Here is the input.
Amino acid sequence: MSVILVHGSVETKTDPPYMLGLEAAALTAYQELARGHDRLTAAEKAVNELENNPLYNAGLGSVLNRDGYVEVDGAIMDGVTGKFAAVAAMQEVRHAVSVARKVMEESRHVVLAGTGATLFAREHGFSADNCITAVQLASWETAIHLKRSGKEVEFSAFTGLIKESDTVGCVLLDDHGGLAAASSTGGSFLKLPGRVGDTPYIGGGIFASSYCAVVCTGRGEAFISTLTAKFVEEEIKSGSHPQEAATKAIHRLHRLTGEFGGILVVDSSGRAAAVHNCVSFPVAMIRNGILEQVPLVQLPSHNTDTFETSDVT
Ligand code: ASP
Here is the structure.
């Protein structure tokens, strides 16, 4: 049995183009597995597909930071070997998840950040790409203009003013019972340069073991400080169904931090869950090569987490 889930982040639209992009990414992962490629390659390729799609805040189409450029985070984890690697606050590279994979396989390190991550990417053949789209640039210019004119306008912390989507992630179970998780993001709109979210934090926004694979989306700082991905894994290890574990984790996240987000998880039996407490959380799932409806749980507290122009310093 193989099970693949991908998400396009909380607050992302669920209109056909967004859903089709997710389905295509899940299908890519399935095809990789069907060709005999390993689970990490399948998860990486699914995320690459979303990094290439400007509708999502990962790779091309990432949100801009306070100073008007893109810094991306990405991570990958193998539930079988326990190997993890990540890049953080990396500039001018589209495929953060693939650079993380290279860090895992071609370096002695676990996490590379900033200019060192970019240098490593160049040394491994990743070409320069500022990842900026006209939509994201317009969103950033609007935010800065409003700030300068002293107008108090609310922006979604997850989507920006015009931006419609956010972090992308993939969890999968392969035919041999192996689990993997992969994630990529442009982070949060108007973040300070150098800010790192939960995506590259093992146990914060991503985790994989022999029990389950987990990826998270939402306010990164909250997922880091609560070690939410690891919490989900511990719950599943103790016998919880993934849906029960993820629901408990979202309630806990909100109780401890007042924040909002979504969790995608699959366990070693192929049981999957997608739980969030925001306005939307588009997810696609392929089980044994067939698209299936994801058991999506929307918890009652909706996202009120916003940035105001006064947050743009
Ligand atoms: N968690 C990501 C971050 O804080 C953003 C998101 O998932 O929406 O960088």
